[in-house]
Amino acid sequence: MSDSAPQMDFFGVPVELRHVEKELTRQILSLRTDDTGPLQKVRMSNLVVYTTSMETARKIAEQAPLVEAAHPARVILLIGDRQAKGDKILAAACARSHPLGRTQQAFWEQVTLYAPGALIERLPFAVRSLIIGDLPINLLWETPTPPPLAGPLLAELSENAQQIIYDSLDWPDPVRGVAATGSWLEQTERTEAGQWRVASDLNWRRLKFWRRLTSQALEPLGETAGQLINEVIVEHGPAAVVQAWLLAAWIARRLGWRPLGGSIQQGVEMAWRCATGKNEATLRVRRLAEGPPEVRVVNLTHHLDGQENWLNLFIESEQRLAIELGSGGFEPRTLTLPALSAAEVVSRQLSDREHDPVFRESMTLAQSLARMVLR
Amino acid sequence: MPLDPAQTSGLKALLPQPCVLVIFGGDGDLSWRKLLPAVYNLNMDGALPSHFAVVCFGIASTEEGRNAADPDEYLRSRARDGIQKFSRQTLVENHWADFSRSLFYVPGSFNDAAAYQKLKSKLAAVDAQFGIPGSRVYYLAVPPQLVDMCVARLRDAHMVSDPAEQNAFTRVIVEKPIGRDLETAREIIHSVDQAFAESQTYRIDHYLGKETVQNLMVLRFANSIFEPLWNQKYIDHVQITVAEEEGVTQYDHKSGEPIASRVGYYEGAGSLRDMVQNHILQVLCTVAMEPPYSLDADVVRDAKVNVLHCLRPMTPDDVRKNVVRGQYIEGDEFGERVPGYRHEVRDFFRRASKPVPPESVNSTTESYVAIRLFVDNWRWSGVPFYIRTGKRMPKRCSEVAIQFREVPQVLFNYQPDVPLEPCVLTIKVQPEEGLSMRIASKLPGPKVRIYPVKMEFNYAAGFGMTSPEAYERLILDVMAGDATLFMRRDAVETAWQWVMPILETWSRERVLNLPEYQCGTWGPVEADRLIHQDGRTWRTL
Q1: Least Cα separation, residue A70 to chain B (angstroms)
Q2: Residue B417 burial (CB count, 10 A)
Q3: Are B397 and B243 in contact (CB under 8 A)?
Q4: Is this complex's ipTM strictly greater than 0.95?
């Protein structure tokens, strides 16, 4: 980032770390328009966000009110700046007020901490003092480093977290990231008796409607879909390789395919041979030269009644997913793709704390696929 | 005794009676930070009788005090400073002007008989000036080793009235620590006994004066929903935590230089003596006691001491299984590096230009202790109480958490996607006073998803005012002659009796190094193991 100390006043009132709680209380009292009723702080959880980019931090700070509107939380935004020099952690406190009905107000709190250089290692200590007890703790890992490669910082920041949320969308080395994530998930979710933790990938959440429509598309093929389909191609815009990969792994798992070997053409395509039971099939993840960072097309080729046919799932318009059948045998089916902002994706994930065995299994398969192309 | 006619709730409310509050060690740290600000707040709230004054006694703790031409003025300026820094209410000039006129200072050594004569004369003059009938509350804000001397001198100077005397009463407040083990506790109790009757003695534990600790009784016995659930049938376990962010040395945040140290007191004492034997066991008694049949001081205190009698005694083997002690090492406090306990101890002696005592060279005084204990009676059979206290924890936080049993594993608890988090009732003692209840609730939406929600009651927000400091309530109680919130001698002795096997086992073990924890963390990993082996976990505070 920069050599000079950041402008913390963008994030709230700059304050000494030890005086954060006092400052929040002061702000809340000054925001209060009616001091006759009880003071209502609205909070369902603690949301600890870690980022290494000031630009991302600013975006998060701007989105925080939207996240809070859907899932009220105390937001603790951490900015770790490895390259910067400095001898102290900077803090800013910000309380927000929102009307609740006609007369009441609800108050939300955000604390931002900036740690330069080696002081990053001290952030977990600072977080411990800011957590609100008895409320779930969510860690949002907003860096391009995949969690398994993040080192002890992530482990310490998540020591009491019930949910670790990450986003695999922008991983710079997707193969290595995916290869490490399956085992990391297993380790992360293994906790002491009486404790519990889940890890969630926002990229997986974005695939929800793709998965739903793919399931609907496979329905007519019944139990034998895995035998009938001989090729799956997932096409994606640049920077969405992990998203495409996750979807490909999920489809392969859904079809009961077992990967046998893989190959990679850097920046173009990854392909795997898979055992389908009696035959072999191919799974491809193909990068489009341009387009938004998301899955664009899923193509399934299959044999039915001795004839080869295909099935295309594609983004028909900005908010619509569609299925097109090669034989033209039935009317194209479509599904509305709700436009979710980044804040909405995060806020929905905060409330969604269930273990997702399908995600786990898909990630395990994705990990096997990754190891094959790493060899 | 006179009852407050303003009280209509039916609760006993005794009126504070005219008296002189005599603070021994009156310009010392406790007086400066707590006692004088507490008296000022009582004055601001109009809670003090109109016939009232404060006389501080002792050798001044500062050079300025020792050389002061006008001792009363010196004390007033010291009190003003303390009030400005530590009082919950800001200093209001016209109130201060009125209040300060009732502050006096008698310099003198606690061991000097002549000084007591001077004190006696001053008290007589103050009586005359303020129309006080000769009643005294002696507050012994002095180290425990001086208690014996102070009470003996008071007795010899004929400054203690007959216990039956109602008009010109004499009462004494004894500060903790009351001894450093059972034997020394008995010695202190015995020395006070030589001058004061038990009915005149008020052994203070300021935790018991906190609103929420008092509210524990109200919560349990004035609400019909809790008491039926307050037993082993519905409660899984209880956690009591007293966490302090401060260590034994405080530093100036700008220069990093030490500004105050409690090493002199704490080294060799440790958290078991400093916190568990008194504060935590007293709070535990309030949580676990049977309903007293009246609010009479001795009836309530009987109920509390019965809990202490029910504490399962520990054998040396039990101590090893149920007690974990630890010591902080270098770590972080609010983003700043702070040294470990041993470093602070050595630094304390170096700065005082004193040799480090051999036992303190590599000190094994515990700054953290966690205990699993059981109250062996019908109500609490099989319910573990987990207590923990430590210094240099991530935040200052004291609370009692009652965790209820899980619901049966049917319906929402039958192989849930997310484990149901049990209901927890939390009584917060500090820094904010209040209580909260965590319950499971359905998240809005078409799918049944269960999420823990926290219902909170905060004293300041709920009642729109700051709670009085514990010392305010307790000083007022002594002036009113209400001993309910003070420790009776049998309670002190019984608490020590329970603690002694732990101290003796530690003393025999002579370990060279204690389990360590970094400053800014929640204690040693051994403490986590202590609770994890029961399938439970320490609460995140």
Answers
A1: 11
A2: 13
A3: yes
A4: no
